[in-house]
Amino acid sequence: MTAPLTVSVTGAAGNIGYALLFRLASGSCFGPDQPIKLRLLEIPPAMGALEGVVMELMDSAFPLVHSIDISDDANVAFAGCQRAFLVGSRPRTADMDRADLIKVNGPIFTGQGRALNDNAADDVRVIVVGNPCNTNALIAMHSAPDVPNERFTAMTRLDQNRAIGQICGKLGCQAADVSNMAIWGNHSNTMFPDYHHAQVNGRPLTEQVSEAWLQGEFLQTVATRGKAIINARGASSAASAASAAVDHMASWEMGTAAGEFTSMAVPSQGDYGVPEGLIYSFPVTISDGRYTLVPGLEHGAEAQAKIQATADELVAERDAVADLLG
Ligand code: NAX
Questions:
Q1: CATH classification of 157-320, choosing from 3.40.50.150, 2.60.40.10, 3.90.110.10, 3.40.50.720?
Q2: Which end of the chain is more exposed for a tag (fewer CB within 10 A), N or C?
Q3: Does any ligand 1 atom lie closer than 6 A to the CB of residue 106?
Q4: Is the preceding peptide bond at 193 cis, omega within 30 degrees of 0?
Q5: Residue 90 Cα, ligand 1 centroid: separation in angstroms?
Q6: Which DSSP helix (H) or strand (E) runs through 308?
Q7: pTM tops 0.90
Q8: Which atom of ligand 1 is nearest to the CA of 18?
Q9: Which residues belong to the active site?
Q10: pLDDT tens per residue, range 201-249
């Protein structure tokens, strides 16, 4: 019997949590032979709702769920944590701009970073979903000096998946036909979906669709998809965000296919001119639980400017939370 993996999820009673937990429990993320211990974190007003989610998890009788513990104390929720999904944070409301969001959510991630530092297992891996996810991951990383920096990542996989979805719609192909559709930078509308290196059935995407579509409708749709979903559904993306979080962690666990890369926001080492230390989305390959930046990708002047602009935004976000970075 494989030893259970301890998986912590914050914001577990929220919309994304509700979609994510059932995917984790069913084995979609860590595989059909990997039991899990779920440790769920919420704030006190949401503990009642979380109890309801736990009842539903029990009622699903998932064979892989070894145990479920809930708490409103991060030190308890991260005890022995090997995989952490940091989803909980305050969503942006109509009266808030990005700077307000950073100020409200930043302190959550100092506390959770410290709690991970003090309580998580040595092999912990962290994905931050709660927005602004890159900068929240940066704050958590700075608050956890004993956890190796490379264990802190943020999610741009939803942006990658949205880009792949648009390509499938345009070409009538399947998601599995599309590879190397990397997202660069911040999970915000400055991110750069790098269609220049994407392939469909092993051939460059740029040979199969017009540059006008890629530069226009494609980039515009990917950048504004979150808003379009709110307008259509009256609620923000939840199931697709949970699915992307599963994809991100599953790739980290299982690795990328030969010759293929995926997008993860990870601590920059200065590659591609991105300032060192930012949590920036790069194309990565993954093997044996370790990711490596894809080296040597070439970019024209326009792509280079986009890669720089999204880095500049992350520098401004980092400056805005300088007091939380110790
Ligand atoms: P919800 O408001 O439905 O759920 C958030 C949950 O977090 C709530 O249950 C709340 O009680 C809990 N929470 C708040 N503060 C907490 C804390 N300090 N500790 C533990 N739990 C806490 O939002 P939901 O739709 O689930 O979205 C969650 C986050 O994901 C938001 O920040 C949202 O902006 C972000 N997203 C990130 C995406 C990405 O691609 N990186 C895409 C989807 C989503 O927008």
A1: 3.90.110.10
A2: N
A3: no
A4: no
A5: 6
A6: helix 301-320
A7: yes
A8: 26
A9: 187
A10: 999 999 999 999 999 999 999 999 999 999 999 999 999 999 999 999 9
